[in-house]
Input
Amino acid sequence: MHTSSSGSSLDRGSTGRRIQRSPDQFQPPDRAPVRKDWVPDNQQHVCMVCQRERFTMFNRRHHCRRCGRLVCHACSDHKMAVEGCTEEEENEVRVCDQCYSYFHPE
Output
C-alpha cells in the first residue's frame, strides 16, 4: 500500500527543522527495565529522542523510567505510572515523550 509523504514520521516544526514524530514507530520494551539496565550515562552524549540536545553540566540528561533511554528535559516532559517503578513514594515517574505518547495515544 502506498502512503503519501504527508503520513511521514518526520514533520517540519515552526522553525523549519525536521522533528521526529514516531510514536507509531517507536516500540518501548514489553516491561520497564530496572535501573541497572538503563542506558549508562557515559554511553550517549545527545538525547536519544530528538538527537539534537547535547548533554552538558547545565543541560542534564534524564532516564526514561519506561524504556531506560537517556533523554533531554524537553523530550521528557511527562510523568506516568510505570509498573514496578516507584521513586520516593511517587505514583508517577519521568518518562520520555515517545513512551508517554505510546501509552496515551491522542
